Amino acid sequence: MSLFDSEIWIQLMTLIGEVTFFFILGMVLAAIALAIIAAASITRGKFYLPRILIPGMVLLEGLVKAFCKLLGLDDKDLITFFITLRNTMNTKAFSETPIEQRAVFLPQCLRSAQCPAHLTPEGLKCRNCGRCSVGENAEWLEKLGYRVFIVPGSTFIKRMVKKYHPRAIIGVGCLMEVKDGIDMSDRIGIIAIGVVNVKDGCVETIADWTAVRDTALLGIKPPSGSVDFHGPAE
Ligand code: SF4
Q: What Pfam families does the record tag this protein with (predicted)?
């Protein structure tokens, strides 16, 4: 009698089969529960059970998204929710990162159509000409201690990350750009907070500068005198 025909082998295989079945069943049930919590959070506009939702999402994001879609959630709402969730998850680590290890990535579509700045290997070099809000906000962020990059796309972001090794970044852009940026940051181990534009498009988009500034100040004691913390955000 071979090992594969023995009673012990059959019992072992049965046990493995049962454990696998209950494990998968548990994951599916947990994903359904998380999808319901996520759906309730999105429709009511507030986070329910964040202590369960956040670690659960880390483990079961793909499955939860699939169930959220089955529950009829709109793609845009779902992406916004996941960005907010990721931001919430990253806030503590971001706040604890020293300012000199942080960077801000702004999309170049924020600039004026008459922008006189030129593209360099490190992105657009803003001249703070006053034609758009990028200049004053980038200057404010730089005074705070941030490296600020105005970039045409993710290739530039990857190159600057490789060169300057920021540990935490603020990524500004349209919904999909921000989501892709957060996913990319997760993959390469960078703490990212995303700020979605208030006006999308290809040219003269508008950033949520108030949110950018609020995020930039996370974990920072405002230094006296050097930065105008109450100046106009737009
Ligand atoms: S403020 Fe900067 S980004 Fe905006 S138009 Fe002027 S140079 Fe271009």
A: DUF116
Task: Flag whether 69 is in a domain.
Answer: yes
Q: Cα–Cα distance between 83 and 116 in angstroms, integer?
A: 33
The finding on whether 139 has its CB within 6 A of some atom of ligand 1 is: no
pLDDT of residue 107: 96
* Closest protein CA for atom 2 of ligand 1: 126
Q: Does 84 fall in a domain? A: no
> Does residue 223 lie in a domain region?
no
Atom 8 of ligand 1: nearest residue by CA position? 115
Domain tally, the chain:
2
Q: Is the minimum distance from the CB of 134 to ligand 1 under 6 angstroms?
A: yes
| Ligand 1 neighbourhood includes 129 CB (under 6 angstroms) | yes
- The pLDDT assigned to 234 comes to 44
pLDDT band at 23 (very low <50, low <70, confident <90, very high): very high
In degrees and rounded to multiples of 5, residue 206 shows phi and psi of: -125, 125
> What is d(CA 213, CA 153) in angstroms, rounded to the nearest whole number?
22
What are the tens digits of pLDDT across the range 50-97?
Answer: 778 777 877 787 888 888 888 888 778 888 888 988 898 889 999 999
Ligand 1, from 132, 149, 206: best to mutate by most atoms within 8 Å of Cβ? 132
Asked, for residue 87, whether it belongs to a domain, the answer is: no
